[in-house]
Amino acid sequence: MKKLRIAVIGYGGMGSYHFNQILPTERDLFELVGVYDLKADRQELAATAGLKTYKSQAELVNDAAIDCILIATPNDSHKEIAIAALQAGKHVVCEKPVTMNAQELREIMEVAKQCNKVFMVHQNRRWDPDYLIVKELVNSGEIGDIFQIESRVHGANGIPGDWRRVKKHGGGMLLDWGIHLLDQILWLVDSPLKNIEADFSYILGEECDDGYITYLTFENGLKVITEVGTTNYIKLPRWYLKGTKGTAEISDWDLSGKMVIATNAEVAAPKPIQAGVGLTKTMAPPSEEATVTQNLPKGVTLTQSFYQNFYDVVVKNAAPIVKNEEVLKVMELIDHIFDVVDKHS
Ligand code: NAD
């Protein structure tokens, strides 16, 4: 089988992760060729790993020995590099967020079409096991029809890195993590968006948002909260889902969590409990026979990894799992949040 020869532009945290962790699991499909990074120490690291180092972006994109290029540089440089790579006849994998806004992605898609080359965005969190459990919960009806989904990632380390704190480089948490959470939701929900509300946080005093919260309502009635925080010393659960028959929680990426499902058994009304200085029946726990607690489902895994799919798209003209039109919708949503919602906050 013909291997695709791949080189990376940007050999920082994520570029080296692709080359050292992800791509080595696909050795039958890809041959790792070389690297171009602006920083000398990253070039040296790549050379030590046995990779060819290029003196410039132009030298790399024009190397006839390469079939495809991975872009893993800060967000504001993706568009220019993607267009140069496509015009040089290379297929491209681009890190998320694909671009600074939807218009930049439209320009790349146009060039990819003209050059007849594959352009695919690494929306890798479509493969996250916690997300695949959520997909199964939504599709199986195990907790009934789901009417509310809450998706959160909470950290307490502030905005990491240098460029992630700088607006012109595409910094901030909506573009960094929000792109994942919103992509997961739009890939899950088969209904148009009806209403979008959002709120940004600037607690750390940076020029970019250090967190945000969105409230999305879909035409089918589903409500979704997505939230990213970088000043959360106590985390809320990664996922919290409310259905007509039960509630599910996935606490963290370790997949701990549970479902509590109504049994529909004839049961006595809950007994009132002392709550604070008051009495409540409404908030009393349901009687034991009224619910059953179950383990979460396993989640249905995708049949191909990101790179197996990219390979098949390039070599066998297969359908991409991450479609550019889907990513464009997410970028349009992010544009809307920045342009309409943030302006008014
Ligand atoms: P990083 O700062 O660790 O690495 C970026 C590297 O790019 C640096 O080594 C820098 O010197 C180099 N660079 C900058 N501009 C360049 C240019 N024009 N040409 C060549 N090299 C250049 O950043 P990172 O965390 O690796 O992020 C890189 C990209 O990967 C971002 O778009 C980020 O959002 C994305 N990312 C994705 C995931 C994911 O899970 N999909 C995770 C982390 C980062």
How does this model look, in words?
The protein has helices at residues 13-22, 40-48, 57-61, 78-87, 102-115, 129-140, 173-188, 306-316, 324-344; strands at residues 4-9, 30-36, 52-53, 68-71, 91-95, 119-122, 146-154, 193-201, 211-218, 223-229, 239-243, 246-250, 257-262, 273-275, 278-280, 291-294. It has two domains: 4-122 and 304-319, Rossmann fold; 126-302, Dihydrodipicolinate Reductase, domain 2 (2-Layer Sandwich). It is built from nine helices and 16 strands. With 345 residues, it is of the alpha/beta class. An eight-stranded mixed beta sheet has the order 8-9-10-7-11-12-13-16. It binds nicotinamide-adenine-dinucleotide (NAD). Nicotinamide-adenine-dinucleotide binds at residues 9-15, 36-39, 42, 57, 72-75, 77, 95-96, 122, 124, 161, 163, 176.
Features:
345 residues; 31% helix; binds nicotinamide-adenine-dinucleotide; single chain; Rossmann fold; 9 helices; 8-stranded mixed β-sheet; Dihydrodipicolinate Reductase, domain 2; alpha/beta; 16 strands; 6-stranded parallel β-sheet
How many distinct domains?
2
So, the CATH homologous superfamily of the largest domain? Answer: Dihydrodipicolinate Reductase, domain 2
Q: Which CATH class of the largest domain? A: Alpha Beta
What order do the SSEs take from the amino end to the carboxyl end, as H and E? Answer: EHEHEHEHEHEHEHEEEEEEEEEHH
Distinct small-molecule ligands in the complex = nicotinamide-adenine-dinucleotide
Rg, rounded, reads 23 Å
Tally of alpha and pi helices: 9
Largest sheet: 8 strands, mixed
Mean pLDDT reading = 96
Distance linking N and C termini: 55 Å
What is the 3D shape? elongated
Spatial strand order of the main sheet: 8-9-10-7-11-12-13-16
Strands, count: 16
* SS-derived structural category: alpha/beta
Helix fraction? 25-40%
CATH fold title of the largest domain: Dihydrodipicolinate Reductase, domain 2
